[in-house]
Amino acid sequence: MAQANSKEPKNIQKRFFLGVLLIPFLALLTALVAGAVVMLAFGDDPILAYQGLFQGAFGSGRAWSVTIRKMIPFILTGLSVAVAFKAGLFNIGASGQFVMGSVCSVAIGIHFEGLPMIIHLPLAILSGMLGGMIWGAIPGLLKVTTGAHEVIVTIMMNYLASLFAGWTVYAGGTQGQTPGPLWDRTARAISETPDVFESAQIPWLFGPPYRVHYGVFLALIAVFIVWWLIYKTTIGFEIRTVGQNPKAARYAGIRVEKTVVLTMGLAGALAGLAGTIETLGLNHKFAPEFGGQVGFDGITVALLGQTHPFGVVIASFLFGALDAGAAKMQFESGVAADIIQVIQALVLAFVAAPLIIKALFRLRSGGDDGHATKLNTSWGGS
Amino acid sequence: MTFWSRTARISVCLALLMMIMAILVEITPLGENPWMRVFFGVSALNFTLRAAIPLVLGALSGILCERSGIINIGIEGMMLAGAFAGFVAKSSTNDWPLYASLLFSVLVALGVGGLMGLLHGLFSIRFRMDQIISGTVIIILAAGLSSYLYDRDAISAGKFTPIPIPLLSEIPVIGPVLFNNAPITYVALVLVFVVHVAIFHTRWGLRTRAVGEHPRAADTEGINVNRQRYVNTMLGGMLAGLAGGFLVLEAVGQFQEGMTAGRGFISLAAMIFGNWTPFGALGAATLFGYTQALQNEFLLAGVTTIPRQFVSMLPYIVTIVAVSGLVGRVRPPAAVGNPYDTEGSK
Lengths: 382, 346
Known about the structure:
heterodimer; A: mainly alpha; ABC transporter involved in vitamin B12 uptake, BtuC; 2 domains; B: mainly alpha; 70% helix
C-alpha cells in the first residue's frame, strides 16, 4: 500500500481505469470462460450454449425488449443493496422487501375499481414502496436499538415476508383456517390474487410482440435520484461518512442511528419498488412463486456495478441479458439454465477479489490492493 | 467457567424442565390434554432433536471459523454442497452394502464441505475478499452448481436408521428421545463436547483463540496466523458438510434443490445466541429446533385454526428476538472479519 501511495497523482486515472472498467470486464470474461470449463467438464457444449444465450438476449427486437424489461428489477434491487453498502450495511433482505412491495401494491391494485389511473397507479406504487420501506427499516431499527446484526435480521425478514405474502393469498385450510385477505375467490384452490385493475397497471411501451413497459423509465428515474441523493446532498454525505467510518461520523456530529435507519428504509423502498413494478407492469397479480432469487442477484449487481448507481445500470444490463437469454440457451443447447447462476457467482467472486483477476492477468497493482468493497464486518455485539 | 456460560445455564434448566414436563405428560392424565401433547409430547422432543442437529453442526462450523477470526456466513452454501455431494455419492454407490455406501457418502460430504471451507479461506485470506461477500459467493455458487448438476432421475436408496443404545434406550421418555437415534445424531452430540474441549483445553484451541482475538500478538508469539485460519475454515467447512450429509443421509434420504432452506443462517444465529461457545450453541440450536417442532406439532394435532403461515413464522421470529435481545451480553472474537497481513497496520 505504502509504495502505491507515493506515486499518487499518476495513479488516479490508472486506478479509475483498473477499478471501474478493466477489472469488472475481465471478471466477466473470466467468469464466462470458467463457466465454459464447468460445462465442458460435465459434457455440455459451451459454444452452443453461449450462442443460444446471445440469441435469446439480443437476437431480435423482441429479445432486446425482454432483456431491457429484465433489467428493471436488477437495477432497483441492485440500487437497494448498493445504497446500503454506501452506509456500510449489508442488505440481504432485498428479496423480502421485493415481496412486500409486490403484496402492498397488489392490495391497492385489486381494490378501488373505477379510480382514474392518474390516482390509482401512483397510489399503488407508493403503497408498494412503503411496504418495502417498512420491511427494510425494521432491521435498521433493530440494529441501532439492540445491536442485532442486519445480515441475520434481513434474512429472517425474507422468510417472514414470503410467509406473510403466502398468507395474504392463502386459499384457506381444511381445519377451518380462513383464506387470506387478497386471495382470488374465483381461483378456487389456487393461491393467488385476482388481476389488478387496468387503472393500476403500468402500460406497455410498445404493442406486442415487444415485452417492455413504462417501468423502465421509473427505474432510470430512481437511478438518477439515488445518484443525486448519495453524491449531491447532505444526507448522502452522511450516509457515505457513516459507511467509511462510523466513529468519525459520530465525532463529526452525524446521528449515526438515524442515518442507519434511513438508509435501510431507503434500500427497502427501492427493493419494494422493484417488486411493485414487476407486479403492476408484468405479472398483474401476486402468487407465492413471484419473487425469489432477485434479491440475491441484487447483491451481485451492486458489487459488479462497484456500488455506483450508474455502474448498477451497466451491471443490470448484463444480468438482464443473461436472464433473458437463459431460457433460449436451455432450449437450443440443452444446457440447464442453472449454469447462469454459477456464472453469476463467479462474476461476484472475481469482482469482489480484484487480486484474483490481477494475478490471473498479471496486472500491475494500481493502488488499492485490498477490498473492492469493505463492509462493517463485525457482528456488532459491542 | 466458559462451560457454565449464561446461555448454557439457562438451556440446561430449560432442558430439565422440558424433560420433567414430558415425563408428566407421558405417565399422568395431563397427557389427555391435546395442548400438553403438542408442547411436551415425546414426538415434539424427537422432532426438536432432529431439527436441532443440522443447526448444532452449522453453529459449530461457525464457531471454528469465527474463533480464528474468519466470519463464515457461507455455512448455508457449505451445507448445501455437503448435502449434494453426499447425495451424489450415495446414489452412485447404491449397489454397495448399505453401510459402506452411507459411510462413503458421509466422507464425501465431509470432503466437499472441507473444500468449500478451503475456498472460503482462499477468498478471504489469500485474496483478501471481504469475508461476508466471500460467504455470499459460496452460497450462490453452491446453489447454482447443485441445481445445475442435479440429476432428477437419481435416487439414493436407504438412509441411516436409529441404533438404540442398550439399557439407556429403555428409560421412559429420555430413552426414546436421546438414546434411540441414528449415527450422525450421536456424532453431532459428541462433537459438541469435542469442540468444547478442543477450543478451551488444548494448545490448538489456545492458538485459535489467540489468532481470533489478537492476531498481531499471536504472530509475535510465532503462531502462523493464516495457516491456523486456513485449518479452522476447512474444519468448519467439514462440519457444515456433515450437517448437509445429515439432511440427505439421515433425515430425508433424498436431495431437494435448496433443501437447506435457511438452516445455515439459523445456525449463525444459534452461534451468536450461544456466545460463540459449543454448549451455548447446543442450547440455542435446541431452542430453534423446538420452535420448528412446535410448528410441526401444531399442524399435525390440528389444535388451532391459525393459518399455517403464521405458525411457520415462529422459528424466524424467535431468531430475530434472540439476536436482538442480547445486546452487550455476547462478544464476538475481537479480530473477526479482519484479514491479517504481516506488514499491515492492525
